[in-house]
Write a sequence for this structure.
């Protein structure tokens, strides 16, 4: 759902489905944009910082271990970033991964992100994990909408525990 203080352009909708198989998480993002109002990044691939400043899909994972969590930023262009945190927005560093995330355009308005989570339990603790599926959508008029399974009160904040509304494993 979009954050109520940052509505999307007319007709824009975002949805996501996810499935975990072994140590891989697949997330299918679907974006409806009937008026072609969204500004999609086209440049960059591979590990890239600051993806969240433009249209970007995201996933956050945490467990019962106090405060540690992981963040994945996944651009429709194929660029990605992965970070580890020791606490709420603290101790941020690049997350070492067994394999790079893959972001593939599967059909018009649909992208599949595949994350290899091998070793993630060493950082955040064992599954079951709490999961936040989020997106930043930038419109051509430079406005942004912030999408999440759940939002905390106040400003958009995907790092907030209230966003970790789904469960994995």
């Amino acid at each position: 759902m979009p954050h109520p203080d940052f509505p999307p352009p007319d007709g824009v909708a975002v949805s996501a489905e996810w499935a975990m198989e072994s140590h891989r998480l697949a997330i299918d993002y679907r974006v409806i944009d009937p008026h072609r109002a969204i500004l999609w990044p086209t440049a960059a691939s591979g590990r890239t910082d600051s993806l969240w400043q433009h249209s970007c899909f995201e996933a956050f994972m945490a467990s019962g271990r106090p405060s540690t969590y992981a963040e994945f930023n996944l651009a429709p262009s194929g660029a990605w970033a992965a970070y580890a945190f020791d606490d709420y927005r603290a101790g941020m560093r690049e997350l070492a991964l067994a394999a790079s995330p893959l972001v593939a355009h599967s059909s018009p308005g649909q992208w599949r992100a595949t994350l290899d989570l091998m070793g993630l339990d060493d950082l955040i603790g064992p599954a079951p994990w709490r999961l936040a599926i989020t997106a930043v959508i930038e419109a051509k008029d430079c406005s942004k909408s912030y999408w999440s399974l759940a939002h905390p009160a106040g400003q958009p904040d995907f790092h907030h525990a209230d966003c970790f509304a789904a469960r994995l494993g």
Summary: The longest strand covers residues 129-138.
